[in-house]
Amino acid sequence: MCINRNPSNTFGRRTEEERHLLCGFYCTEGSLCNRNLDCGHTYPSECADISFQKDGVYNVYPKGADYPKPAYCVIRNGIKWTVIHRRFDGSVNFSRNWEEYKQGFGNVKGAYWLGNEAIHLISTNGKHKLHIDLELRNGSRFYADYSLFKLNNESSQYLLNVTGYSGTAGDSMDNDTLDGRANGYNCARKFQSGWWFALCNFSDLNGNFTKYVPGVLQKWYMNLHYAAIIQSEMMITKY
Fold first, then answer.
1. Where are the alpha helices (DSSP H) in the chain?
2. From CA 65, how far away is CA 104, in angstroms rounded?
3. CB-side exposure of 46: number of CA atoms within 13 Å?
4. Among 42, 142, 173, 182, which lies 20 to 30 A Cα-Cα from 200?
């Protein structure tokens, strides 16, 4: 059903497989439409493939995945993004093992990690960019954009390629390739988190720093000092 007389897109459901398809629909002069869906066999691999007008949880089908993955989708300045990380309080424990970071955890409507495997499948299906929003304890807000974001497969230990920084937060990730090996392993244990480390410095949005700064779970190297982050959101989209 729609209250719109203009052509648009929506989800249909292919009942025999119980999967959402990308479908076209057209509204007539009446208020009802969607009687005859023109459905292909293309599933949305990420939020950018979905026609939606409101931020919320939608099922995506990353290329290569055998099952749908709930993801939080947002629209910012007309661009549709897939949220891969959101954290705003300590309600979700981010001190997890390898398998949990691979599959994802948390509440997709709240604080959560989408999952390394899903992030890998999405970010390697065409070119992708990364946007990060940060909020400090004093209420100040900053952002970081990276024009290239790609997470490699599990056999590479989810090696991260990220470059092309711009923004107001300072560049704490643009290291071309960041991973969890060697020094990263000790950093992960030290800060009780899964992250891409460069000698434990610069950033860790999945960490637990309460024993260093009370009430602070995350850090970001900003303007020659470490900023105490209380809220963060990471999102990717293709271009």
1. 98-103, 116-123, 183-191
2. 14
3. 27
4. 142
Co-location of 34 and 51 in the same domain: no
Question: Both 57 and 14 in a single domain?
Answer: no
pLDDT per position as a tens digit, 132-171:
999 988 899 999 999 999 999 999 989 889 999 999 988 8
CB 47 within 8 A of CB 82: yes
Closest-CA residue to 21 (of 45, 1, 48): 45
| Mean pLDDT for the stretch of residues 53-76 | 94
Residues 188, 77: one domain?
A: yes
Domain count, the chain: 2
**For residues 152 and 169, what is the distance between their CA atoms, to the nearest angstrom?**
25
List pLDDT tens digits, range 73-112. Answer: 999 999 999 999 999 887 888 888 889 999 999 999 999 9
**One-letter amino acid identity for 208?**
N
Check residue 74 and give left, alpha or beta (phi > 0: left; psi -120 to 50: alpha): beta
